[in-house]
Amino acid sequence: MQFHDPIAAIATPMGRGAVGIVRISGTKLDAIAHKLIGPLPPDRIATLRSVRAGDAQTIDQALVIYFAAPRSFTGEDVLEIQTHGGVVQTHDVLKAAIDAGARMAAAGEFTERAYLNGKVDLIQAEAIADLIESSSTRAARLALSSLVGEFSKHVLAFADKLKFIRIQLEAYIDFPDEDISPAALTTLVVATTEVRDDLRALLANAHRGARLNSGVDVVIIGRPNAGKSTLLNALADEQRAIVTNVPGTTRDVLTVDLSIDGLAIRVHDTAGIRDSSDLIEQEGVRRAKQKIEQSDLVLYVTDAETDELMEFISTINIPVFTVRNKIDVDGFAPASQKTSVGVNVKLSAKNLDGIGLLRREILDHFNLADHSDNVVLARERHLIALKMALDALDFDAEKLFQSEPELGAEQLRVAGRALGELTGEYTNEELLGDIFSTFCVGK
Ligand SMILES: Nc1nc2c(ncn2[C@@H]2O[C@H](COP(=O)(O)OP(=O)(O)OP(=O)(O)O)[C@@H](O)[C@H]2O)c(=O)[nH]1
Ligand SMILES: [Mg+2]
C-alpha cells in the first residue's frame, strides 16, 4: 500500500441537495480529524459529529464515516463527511478540511490512488468514469460489468496463456540441440491459435462496446425536398428541423442526439445537394459533403427511383443506406432489403411508416440488435491495445515456433505487453494523466 498526502474534495454534485459529501483520503487523517470532528470514529461506523472550522466554530452536524486503510475506495485511510447539502455548507466543510491540513484533490485523484494501491486496474478505473458518464441503461450495465472486472478477467486470462506458451517455447530455446517434439509443438500452436481467435472475438465485442460508449454519427443527405428534415424529425420523435415544400430549406447542419435501444446516435440533417447560385446554399452543400467524412453511416434520402445524386453517392466510401421516401405517394409498402453497401429502406417519413424498420436496420448495421452479453464497454485505448496484441500474433505459429522460436517468443512477449498496458500492468505517467484528468474532481 502506498500512502500519499491527504486530499479532499466534494464528492457530490454542485448545488443544493439533502446531503453533500466531503471526502478526505491519505495519511495523517487522525490529525485532520481531530481539528475537524474530534477523534476518528470507529472504522466503518456511521457516527454523528459536530464539524468545526479552523477557528473552532461549529459549522455543521454531520454523519461521518471512517474507512481505515486498506478497506477503503482508495486503499488509504478515508474520511467521509456527510454534511447538510447546501452549497455554502458543503464548501465550508471542504475549506475546514483544507485548513486542517488536507489539500484540494485534482480531477480523478481518488481513483488514481485506488489504481496505484491496486484496488482497481486501469480498465476498472476507466469503467468508474464511464459508469458516471453513461448515457443509457445499457452502457451503464456494461460499464458496471467492466468495473467488477469482467473485461479485465478476459484480458488477464489471455496474458497468462501467452506467458505460459512463451515460457514453454523459451525452454526449447535454452536447449538448442533438442528439437521441439511434434506433440509439444502442436500444443503450443493450438494454444496460440486459441488466444488469437479469442482476442479477435474480444476485439469485435469491444468495437461494439466502443460504439455504445461514444455513440455513432449518422448523416442524412439527398436532393432538396427529398424529405431529409422530415426524416430527422421522425427519428427524433419531435419537430426539430424546419420542414417546408421550398427546396433548399435546410442550410446549416442540424444535429440531434438520440438513442435507439441504448445506442447513442448523433443524427445530422444537412442541406439538399444541388448546384445552386445562392451563396448560402453553396456553403450548406459544402458542409453537407464535409459531414459525410466525419460520419459512420450515410442515410441517402430520395423520393424517386433514381436521381442525379446517384453517381455522387456511389463515390462515398462509408456505408450508405438508401432511404426511398414518400412511399405514401407511390403506394409502396414499407420494406427493407440489405445490399452489398448497406440497406435499401422504403418508408414515409411524413406518415411515420417504416421508421421502425429503419431504426432496426441501423441497430443491426452497428451489430447491436442482439443483446449479447459479450459486449465490453471499450475505449479507443482498449481497441488500440487489443489490435496491437492481435497484430503481434499474426504469424504462422507452426512454422515460426520451429524455425525461429526466438522470434516467436518475442512476438508472444509483445502481445502480452500490449495486454499488460491495457490493464495498467505496464503504464506511464502521461497515460495516467490522460485518463484521470478526464474524471470529475472528488472521484
Ligand atoms: N407525401 C409525403 N411528403 C413528404 C414526406 N416526407 C417529406 N415530405 C414533404 O416533402 C417536403 C420537403 O420536406 P423536407 O423534410 O423539408 O425536405 P428536405 O429534404 O429537408 O428539403 P431541403 O431542406 O430543402 O433540402 C415537405 O413538404 C414535406 O412535407 C413523405 O414521406 N410523404
Ligand atoms: Mg431540410
Main CATH class of the largest domain: Alpha Beta
CATH architecture of the largest domain: 3-Layer(aba) Sandwich
Ligands, ions, cofactors:
guanosine-5'-triphosphate, magnesium ion
CATH H-level name of the largest domain... which superfamily? P-loop containing nucleotide triphosphate hydrolases
Q: Any low-confidence stretches, pLDDT <50, length ≥5?
A: none
List keywords for this structure.
443 residues, alpha/beta, Gyrase A, domain 2, Four Helix Bundle (Hemerythrin (Met), subunit A), Rossmann fold, 3 domains, seven-stranded mixed sheet, six-stranded mixed sheet, 16 helices, flat, binds guanosine-5'-triphosphate, binds magnesium ion
SSE blueprint:
Blueprint: E1 7-10, E2 19-26, H1 29-37, E3 47-52, E4 58-67, E5 77-84, H2 87-99, E6 103-104, H3 109-116, H4 122-133, H5 137-147, H6 150-174, H7 182-214, E7 216-222, H8 228-236, E8 254-260, E9 263-269, H9 279-293, E10 297-302, H10 310-314, E11 320-324, H11 327-330, E12 335-338, E13 342-346, H12 355-365, H13 380-392, H14 397-403, H15 405-423, H16 429-436
Bound molecules: guanosine-5'-triphosphate and magnesium ion.
Magnesium ion (MG) binds next to helix 8.
How would you describe this structure to a colleague?
The chain is α/β, with parallel strands linked by helices and 443 residues long. The chain is built from 16 helices and 13 strands. It has a 7-stranded mixed β-sheet, with helices on both faces. Strands 3-4-5-2-1-6 form a 6-stranded mixed β-sheet, covered by helices on one side. It starts with 6 loop residues before the first strand and ends in a 7-residue tail after the last helix. The mean pLDDT is 91. The structure holds guanosine-5'-triphosphate (GTP) and magnesium ion.
